[in-house]
Amino acid sequence: MIHFYQKAVKRTGTNSETWINEMCSMVAEDIISKNLDIDGPRGVDAGTGDAGPPDNENGRLPLFNVFNDISVPEWDHQPYNYSINYAFGAYLSR
């Protein structure tokens, strides 16, 4: 939300790269998912503090496990780009 405020409301005149914008959005969703009682980008029940069941195929992280060799700033609007950037943002926020 801070990123959106700085970019859209205050209109500082600087454009951020797409991967930074998407990463900030997914991290914000991750942080507030428990309060909203939604699964969020992890794809597991918001009330659990763990990684979910071992066979979890929901959320962003299972796809990150497959495409973990792609650079964070490489962005071509593919699902794996969201996974990589969410994993990086989740790491930074914790």
What sequence of helices (H) and strands (E) makes up the elements?
Answer: HHHH
Q: Estimate the helix proportion, in percent.
A: 40-55%
The number of distinct β-strands equals 0
What is the alpha-carbon Rg in Å?
Answer: 14 Å
Helix-strand makeup class? mainly alpha
Main beta sheet strand tally, sense and closure: none
Give the uncertain stretches in residue-range form.
Answer: none
Beta-strand share of residues: under 5%
Count of DSSP-assigned helices = 4
Cα(first) to Cα(last) distance is: 18 Å
In short:
The protein has 94 residues and is mainly α. The protein contains 4 helices and no strands. The chain has one domain.
Structural features, described:
There is one protein chain. Helix 2 (18-36) packs across helix 4 (79-93). The mean pLDDT is 84. This protein has one domain (2-6, 15-44, 57-93). It contains 4 helices and no strands. The chain has helices at residues 2-9, 18-36, 61-66, 79-93. It is an all-alpha fold and 94 residues long.
How do the helices and strands line up, and which of them pair or pack?
Layout lengths: L1 H8 L8 H19 L24 H6 L12 H15 L1
Helix pairs in contact: 2-4
Question: Which key terms come to mind for this protein?
Answer:
mainly alpha; single chain; 94 residues
